[in-house]
Specification:
It is built from four helices and four strands, in the order H-H-E-H-E-E-E-H. By secondary structure, the protein is mostly helical. It has one domain. The strands form two sheets. Strands 1-4 form a two-stranded antiparallel sheet. The chain starts with a helix and ends with a helix. The mean pLDDT is about 80.
Length: about 160
């Protein structure tokens, strides 16, 4: 049976030519090891902001509750959706792909429309916010475990 630190040690193995290449390669591998967790945490934090904005505007006339599909946003982020940047002049720097931006916000249809046009249902928003906060904490705990695994692989324990 393979331990987490054994898999990580294998993931980090490489034989680059120079010390700079070795350091760069190692950092790239560490980044790729933690990238899905970082993306999940960033998306959860952004969703918390969106839901908090909905709750804060619960009494604002004509405010439309917004949210995004976390699963679709995470799938898009994991698929490494990129925007291609074109080089239009020889004097420009070499183009690099740029990660696509934040998830597309959608308006939520209310279960029971209000007279003032506001679509925020406070109880439902608080429930969504609490669920998202719990999932953020779980993702943070999981990420912390991956960092401990990484530390074990580096120290050889």
């Amino acid at each position: 049976m393979q331990t987490g630190s054994g898999r990580m040690a294998r993931h980090l193995q490489s034989t680059p030519a120079s010390p700079q290449d070795r350091q760069s390669n190692m950092l790239d591998r560490i980044d790729s090891f933690l990238a899905p967790n970082v993306r999940a945490l960033n998306l959860r934090a952004y969703r918390s902001e969106v839901l908090a904005g909905n709750i804060a505007n619960a009494d604002t006339p004509n405010y439309k509750a917004r949210d995004f599909d976390f699963r679709a946003a995470m799938t898009g982020a994991t698929a490494r959706a990129t925007l291609q940047v074109a080089r239009t002049s020889a004097g420009h720097l070499e183009p690099k792909s740029v990660a696509s931006g934040t998830p597309r916000l959608q308006f939520r249809a209310p279960m029971q429309p209000s007279i003032d046009g506001n679509t925020v249902e406070t109880d439902a928003e608080v429930g969504r916010f609490s669920d998202n906060a719990m999932r953020y904490q779980a993702a943070l705990t999981f990420t912390s475990g991956r960092i401990r695994t990484l530390q074990s692989a580096v120290t050889g324990q």
